[in-house]
Amino acid sequence: MAAPAQISQDELEELREAFAKIDVDSHGHIGTDELNDLFKAANLPLPGYRVREIIQDLTKTGDLHDGKVTFNEFANVVHGLKSTEVAKTFKKAINKKEGINAVAGTSEQSSSGTQHSYSEEEKVAFVNDDTIVTWVNDTLTQAGKGTISGFKDGSIATSMPVLDLIDAIQPGSIRYDLIKVEDLTEEEKLNNAKYAISMARKIGARVYALPEDLVEVKPKMVMTVFACLMARGMKRV
């Protein structure tokens, strides 16, 4: 099975890096018992029951070979998880309860009938990059702030889009008098980034990226910052 053409080359490379972290012997495949670790390495943490369902699906479709998962099969699974339909379902989340929502009106259920709910952070893992960028820009626009073109936008090096988004989510939280906006030195960019990461965590976003990730505009890590802020922002709805 070939990797899906709909996944960008950049994302494929990131998935390959994650796969290589688990496939330490470079065999080109991993065991199903390692699949959960692989999703975590790819910044797509899934509940254990969901991983078991994926394994069952791969078994039914004949895509497992002696209990092994190849990279292309993994890439296809990721593409399925990030599909537009899942993203739409995610955006319809209702039944809010202490930061945990049920999807499409009902919680996901395992084959045993156990009810499961997704945290906001878990659900954002299913959403594709375009959905996150759209949400970020909509939120920034509503707050009268500038937007981004994507996770490689040069303005991210100043951390201003992140700081503006934090302030849009929790108005008045950012002290703009502490931020250098124009003609920034590398040290000033880093100071802005440290402030942005600190404030993101302070308002409740589970950000694990480093300030350097913003300054260097590392797309994958930048995406995780905005995804975590999106998860935090959606709790306001």
TrEMBL record:
Residue ranges of every copy of the Calponin-homology (CH) domain listed in the record: 126-234
EF-hand domain mapped to chain residues: 10-45
UniProt GO cellular component terms: actin filament; actin filament bundle; cytoplasm
CDD domains: EFh
GO biological process: actin filament bundle assembly; actin filament network formation
Presence of the UniProt keyword RNA-binding in the record: no
Gene3D superfamilies according to UniProt: Calponin-like domain, EF-hand
Keyword line: Actin-binding, Calcium, Metal-binding, Repeat
A Pfam family it matches: EF-hand_7
GO molecular function: actin filament binding; calcium ion binding
UniProt keyword annotation of Repeat present: yes
InterPro entries: CH_dom, CH_dom_sf, EF-hand-dom_pair, EF_hand_dom, Fimbrin/Plastin
PANTHER family to which the protein is assigned, alphabetical: FIMBRIN/PLASTIN, PLASTIN-2
Name of the protein described by the UniProt record: Lymphocyte cytosolic protein 1 (L-plastin)
Protein species of origin: Oncorhynchus mykiss (Rainbow trout)
Lineage: Eukaryota, Metazoa, Chordata, Craniata, Vertebrata
